[in-house]
Specification:
There is one protein chain. A hairpin with a 2-residue loop joins strand 2 and strand 3. This protein is α+β, with helices and mostly antiparallel strands. The model has no long low-confidence stretch (mean pLDDT 89). The N and C termini lie far apart (78 Å). Helix 2 packs antiparallel against helix 3. The chain folds into two domains: 68 residues, no CATH class; 64 residues, Nucleic acid-binding proteins (OB fold (Dihydrolipoamide Acetyltransferase, E2P), Beta Barrel), CATH 2.40.50. Helix content is 42%, strand content 22%. The radius of gyration is 27 Å and the shape is rod-shaped.
């Protein structure tokens, strides 16, 4: 069977999309855009050199643009302090008294939790906000206005 140039480019594009679906590597989609551009160049009658240059420029350009976009995006907080991962982040607790080692016990969600002070200065009893959850410990800082 004799395939023409656009068919070959479209098959490579499909293979790259399938590989991206299997691996989750978004950069493969950017390369697939490049090969799709090569297919369009072939449909428009460009020769092999024009097709390869088009595919390379579009693929590399899309990959570079995606890399720069990700580099500029703000980093998410670590899972232990990320409200999108842990619904307890930002919840209020009441600390009755701090122990000399900087820990305390608080009632939260129907049970008693161990807390560590994660604010600045000297821990004081009162309203606090959960800022992290690590191995059964709640990291807390004073609630705003307290």
């Amino acid at each position: 069977m004799d395939w023409n140039a656009p068919t070959t480019w479209w098959l490579v594009t499909g293979a790259l999309v399938a590989a991206e679906l299997a691996t989750g590597t978004f950069y493969l989609l950017m390369l697939a855009l490049g090969t799709a551009a090569g297919a369009v160049a072939a449909h428009l009658g460009l020769g092999p050199t024009g097709q390869w240059v088009t595919a390379a420029l579009v693929g590399a350009g899309c990959t570079a643009a995606w890399h720069l976009q990700r580099a500029r995006a703000p980093r998410s907080a670590p899972a232990a302090a990320n409200q999108d991962v842990n619904i307890d982040i930002g919840a209020a607790v009441q600390v009755q008294a701090w122990l000399p080692d900087g820990s305390a016990r608080v009632a939260y969600r129907g049970t008693t939790w161990a807390v560590r002070f994660a604010g600045t200065g000297v821990p004081a009893p009162g309203a606090h906000v959960i800022v992290s959850v690590q191995s059964g410990w709640l990291g807390v800082k004073p609630a705003p206005g307290h």
